[in-house]
Amino acid sequence: MTDQPKQPEQPGRRQFIRNLAVIGGVAGVSALTGKAFGETAEPQTGAQPLPGRGYQESDHIRTYYEKARL
User: Fold this and answer.
1) What is the residue-wise DSSP string for 49-66?
2) Distance in angstroms (rounded) separating the CA atoms of residues 15 and 56
3) Are 36 and 30 in contact (CB under 8 A)?
4) CA atoms of 9 and 15, how far apart (whole Å)
């Protein structure tokens, strides 16, 4: 048997699949930690919950509860 020279692998397709796996893993970790790329750990101002308010049932919440009943 004669050995034919081995064809070079197609690194484009294999590298693409590896890149997809890496990007998917990074996206999963980002989703689990709740932080997106470029976000800082500094608290955002303006959307802070008011202290002592807690859960309040309003008219639109009651309407939702009535429609959600089976």
Assistant:
1) PPTTT-----HHHHHHHH
2) 52
3) yes
4) 11
Tokens 């101002």 -> residue = 45
More confident residue, 70 or 55: 55
Single-letter amino acid, residue 13: R
Query: Which residues, including other chains, have CB under 8 Å from residue 36's CB and lie 6 or more apart?
Result: 30
Q: Phi and psi (nearest 5°) for 37? A: -65, 135
The DSSP symbol for 11 reads H
Enter the tokens of residue 42.
Answer: 């500094």
pTM flag (> 0.90) = no
Structure tokens at 65: 């509860």
Q: Which residue has the tokens 């009535």?
A: 66
pLDDT for 12: 81
